[in-house]
């Protein structure tokens, strides 16, 4: 089990002029290298809890333990410089260019100029932005998604062990948000930071978290567990209501496209003429073939009618491939792509955009059936363990023993998340 990096012990916060505490007697442990997501309804105290960790808000009572030391009364600036912080509004300094924004904390820590420049270029590259193109730009010259990437880069500038993220993708359109979530999970697979992540969206919590703490009013923990266990066994009526309907769809965010058996699907590569495409259709068991360009990127769906009756060139025949999913995308991403594609299928590509295969609704349904069966088996093991514990007069396990955190993290962020070939 990973070591505990952060502890909140009996932490409370009551704002001046308020009788009721925003956070009341909260005990919380955060393990090194995990993503803990705080999720709950508006006003439950999750953002206050996050800010208590780095003492942007001072606690009214209780202790904050970081790396085994009580940091409740140390210099708060020193504590904050050990923790990156990313917020929904991004918080970039508008009068500073991107380089100057990223350099903020390293400068405060006394880094030399060459190290700061090297770090800024490295981080921009890591979040998918060309340093030569963006270092001298100002925040107003960026899109929302680009600015959020810079916000993450700035939070990582001094290589902190801890990242605190408050609704970091909440103000971005759904498509960009999904891409940033996937990219961030790829980064985390490499960096293994300890992350506390606040969201109001249970779907985002399930996708991002190694563990989830569902909070009710005053940051009281309604359930703290792995996403799998929370979806399979909500602890109480509050959690059930907060999860809402569609637990099966939420569970699709726990599995990745790479976990599917992606079948071979007929393809034709450019340059291609009509006889070549018709021959491929004759040999295929399907009604469609996927047309690939010279770099093996999928560009068109072709059927016999489009090929035989079309007056356009092959490269303009059929229907365009408008949506593709990558191997590290979730099954929910894949399902949404299938719905948008209108074909009941989705093209799978590698991280460089080259063709890998096609998944169908049938393959997705089979994976869902396997996932449900696995969850039932794991819960049966958990219940048997709980019964044995009760008979022996010891505490029952609070986490399903078969749902090991490291296994979950590996399955979600495994080596293939860094790209497939």
From TrEMBL:
Q: Which key words tag this protein in UniProt?
A: ATP-binding, CBS domain, Nucleotide-binding, Repeat, Transport
* Record-listed E.C. numbers: 7.6.2.9
Organism superkingdom: Bacteria
Q: Which Pfam families match?
A: ABC_tran, CBS
Q: Does the keyword Metal-binding apply?
A: no
What SMART domains does the record tag this protein with? Answer: AAA
Molecular function via GO = ABC-type quaternary ammonium compound transporting activity; ATP binding; ATP hydrolysis activity
**What does the record list as GO biological process?**
glycine betaine transport
Enzyme group, top EC level?
translocase
Could you tell me which residue ranges the CBS domain spans? 315-374
Task: State a GO cellular component annotated for this protein.
Answer: membrane
Alphabetized InterPro entries for the sequence: AAA+_ATPase, ABC_transporter-like_ATP-bd, ABC_transporter-like_CS, CBS_dom, CBS_dom_sf, Gly-betaine_transp_ATP-bd, P-loop_NTPase
Keyword Repeat assigned to the entry: answer is yes
Checking SUPFAM superfamilies in the record gives: CBS-domain pair, P-loop containing nucleoside triphosphate hydrolases
Gene3D superfamilies, per the entry: CBS-domain, P-loop containing nucleotide triphosphate hydrolases
Q: Where is this region: Disordered?
A: 391-421
Domain ABC transporter as annotated: residue spans:
6-243
Q: Which family does it belong to?
A: Belongs to the ABC transporter superfamily.
The protein, known as = ABC-type quaternary amine transporter
Q: Which organism is it from?
A: Candidatus Neomicrothrix subdominans
């Amino acid at each position: 089990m990973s070591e505990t990096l952060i502890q909140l012990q009996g932490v409370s916060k009551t704002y001046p002029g308020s009788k009721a505490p925003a956070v009341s007697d909260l005990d919380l442990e955060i393990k090194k290298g995990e993503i803990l997501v705080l999720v709950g309804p508006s006003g439950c105290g999750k953002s206050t809890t996050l800010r208590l960790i780095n003492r942007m808000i001072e606690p009214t009572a209780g202790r904050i333990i970081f790396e085994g030391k009580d940091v409740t009364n140390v210099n708060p600036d020193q504590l904050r410089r050990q923790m990156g912080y990313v917020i929904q509004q991004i918080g970039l300094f508008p009068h500073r260019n991107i380089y100057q924004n990223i350099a903020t904390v390293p400068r405060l820590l006394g880094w030399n100029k060459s190290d700061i420049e090297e770090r800024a270029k490295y981080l921009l590259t890591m979040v998918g932005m060309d340093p030569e193109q963006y270092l001298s730009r100002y925040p107003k010259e960026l899109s929302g998604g680009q600015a959020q990437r810079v916000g993450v880069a700035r939070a990582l500038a001094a290589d902190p062990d801890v990242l605190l993220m408050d609704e970091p993708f909440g103000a971005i359109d759904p498509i960009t948000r999904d891409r940033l979530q996937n990219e961030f999970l790829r980064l985390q697979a490499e960096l293994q930071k300890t992350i506390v992540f606040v969201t109001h969206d249970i779907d985002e919590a399930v996708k991002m978290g190694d563990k989830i703490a569902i909070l009710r009013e005053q940051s009281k923990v309604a359930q703290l567990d792995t996403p799998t266990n929370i979806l399979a066994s909500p602890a109480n009526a509050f959690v059930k209501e907060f999860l809402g309907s569609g637990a099966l769809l939420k569970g699709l965010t726990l599995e990745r496209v790479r976990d599917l058996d992606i079948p071979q699907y007929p393809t034709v590569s450019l340059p291609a003429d009509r006889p070549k495409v018709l021959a491929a259709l004759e040999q295929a068991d399907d009604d469609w073939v996927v047309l690939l360009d010279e770099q093996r990127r999928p560009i068109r769906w072709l059927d016999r009618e489009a090929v035989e009756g079309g007056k356009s060139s092959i490269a303009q025949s059929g229907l365009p491939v408008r949506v593709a999913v990558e191997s590290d995308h979730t099954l929910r991403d894949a399902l949404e792509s299938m719905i948008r594609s209108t074909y009941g299928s989705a093209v799978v590509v590698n991280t460089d955009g080259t063709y890998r295969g096609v998944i169908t609704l049938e393959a997705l349904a089979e994976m869902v059936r396997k996932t449900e069966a696995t969850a039932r088996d794991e819960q049966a093991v958990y219940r048997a363990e709980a019964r044995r514990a009760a008979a022996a007069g010891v505490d029952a396990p609070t986490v399903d023993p078969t749902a090991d955190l490291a296994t979950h993290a590996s399955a979600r962020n495994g080596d293939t998340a860094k790209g497939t070939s």
